[in-house]
Amino acid sequence: MRVALIHDWITGMRGGEKALEVFCELFPAADLFTLVYLKGTVTPIIERRLVRKSPIHWLPFAGTLYRQYLPLFPIAVEQFDLDAYDLVISTSHCAAKSVVVTGRARHLCYCLTPMRYAWDQFDAYFGPDRVGKVPSALLRPVLASLARWDRATEGRVHRYLAISQYVARRIALYYNRQSTLVHPPVDTDFYSPASDEAAAAVTPTTSSDHPLPASPHFLVVSALVPYKRVDLAMMAARRAGVRLTVVGSGSERQSLERLAGDGIELAGWRSDEEIRDLYRTCTAAVLPGEEDFGIVPVEAQACGRPVVALGRGGALDTVIDGETGVLVGETTVESLEAGLRRAAATPWQPARIRAHAETFSRRRFVAAIEQVVDDTMRAPAGTRW
């Protein structure tokens, strides 16, 4: 069986690339296709592949400014020659799901999300505040056209796999298709409590009606982009009088610097080992924005630490309110502040938190994918789920 792996672009190890890494392990002889490839940004498992790149890869500054070439993505992704393959697996949040396969091939799409900026988050990426009034106005019809193309090509996929119930609902809404839920893989062997001492319960502090002591220390690990709402976490931490470390980089770094100071730190990016140490020693990790899945909450829980998260999107799959973290109901500073206080005042059970995280392990992901591939390949050619 010849297998092709399709990925939108390979420019760093985010959640989608972690799933791609497992696909590369599962199918060591598979060929890898992508629109843009920035060498040196992913793990050796992916780096060792012969990566077949689209013409967009060779355009000026494509490795960092690939989104500027969005209007070219439909043409580029349809040019991949997949005639020789029996199974095509796309990991898609943009255009990868729209590759063209032969009538005998099966196409599985591991859908990270239908294209956010084309469907419902245009302003977060290309709004007037982000790119200026004129560019935003010019881009709006382009992205609307891209959304129509995205919808028109949904039938090129034989079976959709959704990373969360939230994404499954988006697939149903925008593509009118059912999907199979397969949560992304989390390396729960690497992300683990440091020791028995690290798994000790946090000592409760005073009630939310009284100031918290200086000891609570919260953590955000995130790209610094608007929809992540890192600013909300920083303002809530200041109001609660707790320390907060923000790990990450991105376009919002400069604007967030005005919120730093007095125990609120922008730490830049850190290695996986450093992030693991920060998970292990924080009071709780914080997820202030709405995510399609959100791998950070699971990594933190694998280290035995609770999570404070907005109770929407993927967090509803990954965080159990009152058992493995705190879900807050509103996207406001006041609501998140209350969540931080509640997390600091709760005697958590790290062993219970860790056990929940293990349900998202790489082993579980591998078993689920193997079953899906087996079922799909046994079905008659052309079967759609």
Write the topology of this structure:
Elements: E1 3-10, H1 15-26, E2 31-37, H2 44-47, E3 51-53, H3 62-65, H4 73-77, E4 87-92, E5 106-111, H5 116-119, H6 122-126, H7 128-131, H8 133-152, E6 159-162, H9 165-175, E7 179-181, E8 217-221, H10 230-240, E9 243-247, H11 253-256, E10 264-268, H12 272-281, E11 284-287, H13 295-302, E12 307-310, H14 315-318, E13 325-328, H15 333-345, H16 350-357, H17 362-378
Parallel strand pairs: 1-2, 1-4, 2-3, 4-5, 5-6, 6-7, 8-9, 8-11, 9-10, 11-12, 12-13
Helix pairs in contact: 10-15, 13-16
In words, what does this structure look like?
With 385 residues, the protein is an alpha/beta fold. The chain folds into 2 domains: 3-185 and 361-378, Rossmann fold; 217-359, Glycogen Phosphorylase B (Rossmann fold, 3-Layer(aba) Sandwich). Helices cover 37% and strands 17% of the residues. The chain contains 17 helices and 13 strands. The chain has helices at 15-26, 44-47, 62-65, 73-77, 116-119, 122-126, 128-131, 133-152, 165-175, 230-240, 253-256, 272-281, 295-302, 315-318, 333-345, 350-357, 362-378; strands at 3-10, 31-37, 51-53, 87-92, 106-111, 159-162, 179-181, 217-221, 243-247, 264-268, 284-287, 307-310, 325-328. Strands 3-2-1-4-5-6-7 form a 7-stranded parallel β-sheet, sandwiched between helices. It has a 6-stranded parallel β-sheet with strand order 10-9-8-11-12-13, with helices on both faces. Helix 2 (44-47) links the parallel strand 2 and strand 3 (51-53). The longest helix is centred in the middle third of the chain and has 20 residues, at 133-152. The protein starts with a strand and ends in a 7-residue tail after the last helix. 44% of the residues are buried.
